[in-house]
Structures are given as structure tokens and as C-alpha cells.
Amino acid sequence: MSSPGAAPLADLDGRVARALRNATAAAAASVVPLVGSGDGMAVDGTAVDALRAALAAIAVDGRVVAGEGEKDAAPMLAPGERFGTGGLALDLAVDPVDGTRLAASGRDGAMAVLAVTGRDGFADLGPAHYLAKQVTWLPDAAGLPIDRLVARLAEVRGAAPADVRVAVQDRPRNADVAARARAAGATVVPFEHGDIERSLRAAQPGTDLDVVTGIGGAPEGLLTAAAVRALGADMVASYAPQSAGEAERLVASGRSDSTPLTLDDLCPGPAWLFLSAVTACRPGADGVLEAARREARGIRVASWDVGPERAPRRSELLVGDDGAVAGAGR
Ligand SMILES: O=P(O)(O)OC[C@H]1O[C@](O)(COP(=O)(O)O)[C@@H](O)[C@@H]1O
């Protein structure tokens, strides 16, 4: 959480924003040869190396606060790692590939994704690997019991409960919340991996999803919170340890799984999220971001980003074999 007196970062220089977006493009491009390889560790390791190299050259005083990988013992950018050549103080949450197993098996929904905010602008989740999360586009609605949330969304949309679509990651730990959403009359949309992609859609009205709920990865929760903040949507979370060891570490760090984390706790100030598709992704209502693919002049990558007080933007980029990124005119 923001340290007392820390001013939230109000703006991001356009060059820094482009460099952060391009870092995700470099990561996505780096794993193109590994899509469908079956080797998830190689996917993560290659993306981490590409991201680390790209981040090193950005003119910021950067600090990693959440880098997905610890719970799966996968290569990762480690919390506390510094990056950049100096300048604006930024904190970074990053998942070099959300959907590693999707990329390794050549399925849709894998993306390189990072989010930034000002120094101390993300919650410190300590040793948490998992969070219970609820995300919805309806402001001030996250945290309602799922039956009341479904009823409220149906009322606001002037729709039947069955038209309210609730995405739940298909895991035994989420069976109860999925059953409660179904009992409330909602349509439950199970998914295997990629709760950031689903949360981005649930955080925007007019997509195929109204809610994401259930337990998923903790770093993904901070990335989601940054986007939810930028999109003006709502989110709550709580610690949800999935092993005795995780529970013990949480308690030892002074955290309790009964502590609700609101959006103001998770990401209180302005935040920016940048992503690039590894395989085809759908971050919003405005169609598919195509999978990164090799062309004669380099690897074409589709990116998407969102920041405070502006609509999401899409860009097409070309990543050269030297890692240099340029706009890709057709
Ligand atoms: O697969 P688990 O252990 O249930 O963890 C859930 C998390 O894993 C993912 O499905 C995939 O994450 P990674 O590809 O980064 O490992 C996330 O979207 C989700 O938050």
C-alpha cells in the first residue's frame, strides 16, 4: 500500500509508456518459437530474459513488486529486483506469460503482461500465492455475495439473471462459488487458465463477461487491480492460501485470510497495464488480438494497453531479430 506521504504517480511520459508496451511485445515475440513446444519452463524462462533485457533500458527507477512464477517454481522476475537507467520511480507487477501452459500447448489466451504504478502504489501481498478475487465492471459492486451481485447486474442491465455471465477458473477450490452463481441463475463460464484476460473483459461493460470470481494467482490479482483501476471498474480480494505452508507463511507475515482487500488497498492510485498477445487473446469487446507471428521483417505482435482516464488502445508492432520494436504498418 502507498506509504504515508507518497504522492500517487499522476502521469506516465509517452516514451516510458511506449517502452513498457514494447517490453511486453519483446517478451511475446521471444516465445514464438516455443508456442506448441510443450515446454512451459522454456516459455517462462525465455520471456523473463526478454522482459528483463527490455526493462533494463527504460529511463525509470523501476522496482519489481510482484513477478509471477514462485508458486510453480518457474523462472520469474523477482520481487525487489530493480530495473531501468534511472528517472521516474515506478513499481511493477509482471507476468512474463500469463497462460504459460496455453502457450506451451499452442492454445489461445497466452499473453505477456505488466502493470505499473507509483512507488509503493501496489499492496504488498508478502508470501501470498493465491487470492480469492471478485471483479466486475459495475462500480462499487464487487464484494457483494454472488447471488446479490448477479441480481444487481441483471437489474442494471435490464436482463434476466441467465444473461449475467460469471467466469470461474475451473478448479475444485472454486466449485462452491460456481455452484452459488448457478443457483443465483447466472450463466457460469468455466476457464482453464488466464484469469487476467477474463478479468479485463469483466471489468468492461458490453463484453461477454460481467464477473470473474474465485481463487486464482496473487500476482495476477495485482495486475488485474491495475487494469480495474484504469478502467473504472471494481474489485475485491482476500488471501486464500492453498497449502499449509502458504497459510503458515501468511500468518507469520502478519496477514490473515479474513482481511478484505478493496481496490483502494490493492492499487490505490493511477495505474497502467500493458499486454501483448503470445497466442490469440481477447482483452476487450473490440475483437481478438492475433497471435504473435513471424513475418519477413520480424515478428508481428498485437498489443493492448490501458491507463487512467482513457480508453484502451491497440497497437500492431514489429519486433526485429535484435529485439528492436517498431510500429507495424500493413
Ligand atoms: O494454475 P493454478 O495454480 O490454479 O493458478 C491459477 C493461476 O494460473 C493461471 O491460470 C496461469 O498462470 P501462469 O501461466 O502465469 O502460470 C493464472 O491465470 C491463474 O491466476
Summarize this structure briefly.
By secondary structure, the chain is α+β, with helices and mostly antiparallel strands. Helix content is about 30%, strand content about 30%. Strands 1, 2, 3, 4, 11, 12, 13, 14 and 15 form a nine-stranded mixed sheet that branches. A six-stranded mixed sheet has the order 7-6-8-5-9-10, with helices on both faces.
What does this structure look like?
This protein is an alpha+beta fold. It has two domains: 14-122 and 270-327, Fructose-1,6-Bisphosphatase, subunit A, domain 1 (Fructose-1,6-Bisphosphatase, Chain A, domain 1); 130-266, D-Maltodextrin-Binding Protein, domain 2. 29% of the residues lie in helices and 28% in strands. Strands 1, 2, 3, 4, 11, 12, 13, 14 and 15 form a nine-stranded mixed β-sheet that branches. It has a six-stranded mixed β-sheet with strand order 7-6-8-5-9-10, with helices on both faces. Helix 6 (195-202) runs parallel beside helix 7. The structure holds 1,6-di-O-phosphono-beta-D-fructofuranose.
Following the backbone from N to C, one meets helices and strands in this order, namely: HHEEEHEEHEHEHEHEHEHEEEEE
Would you tell me which CATH topology of the largest domain applies? Fructose-1,6-Bisphosphatase, Chain A, domain 1
Query: What CATH architecture of the largest domain do you see?
Result: 2-Layer Sandwich
- Determine the CATH superfamily of the largest domain: Fructose-1,6-Bisphosphatase, subunit A, domain 1
Q: Cα-atom Rg, whole angstroms?
A: 19 Å
Provide the list of bound ligands, each named once.
1,6-di-O-phosphono-beta-D-fructofuranose
Structure summary, number of beta strands: 15
Oligomer: single chain
Helix content: 25-40%
Approximately how much beta-strand content do the residues carry? 25-35%
| Separate helix tally | 9
